[in-house]
Amino acid sequence: MFALNAKDVKDHLPMDPQEEAVALADYAAAGIKLHAAGAIYFAKDEDADIRSKFEYCKRAGISVIVAGDPAPETLPRIEKFVKEYDIRIAIHNHGPEDKLWHSPLDVLKAVKGMDPRIGCCIDVGHTVRAGTDVVQAIHEAGPRLFNVHMKDLTNFESKESQVAVGDGIMPVRRMFEALIAMKYRGFVDLEYEIHPDDPMPGVIASFAFMRGVLAGMGLARQG
Length: 223
Prior knowledge:
CATH topology of the domain at 93-216: TIM Barrel
Strand order of the largest sheet: 1-2-3-4-5-6-9
Distance between the termini: 7 Å
Shape: globular
Helix content: 25-40%
Largest sheet: 7 strands, parallel
Mean pLDDT: 95
Strand content: 15-25%
């Protein structure tokens, strides 16, 4: 069984219920289980719009919504649906270009005191580009860390410097050590956004490197 974080687009997991059902059947037939959806954007502070996103994930049996750029004033309304559906919200940081959530630390400040099912998805590339120590951010997020988007960079000031995981300067082992120390139970999702015409060599190399790091730490391969 493979695990996937799907996006709400036509070639991943469409929002239309009938098209979604077809996609879910295809994933199941291929031995793929969806563990999260996102980034899903909450552009409207309206019950109907927010409920549609939660219904979409409920139909798919998804327990974590990776939320892209929800406005802070929308969070109390989202919290209401988190409680109703028992689906966690992981707010995704998008680095220095993000108008709202540069770093996971910005997310943690905003959700402090809210339902414990509202937390963050740490995108490690955007985190380091925001000038945040990604290992420290993992420790600070603690139980509010619901998802990790993994990538590697050769220059922490340039998102164009992405490479296969292991070919850059991301502190991968230290991040895994931090996740293990905090008993993280979520997923580390590879987000490989380069070489769209031939991504598989980089994808395979990234997984091989991460599994090698874990093996070197004395952890058996999982999945």
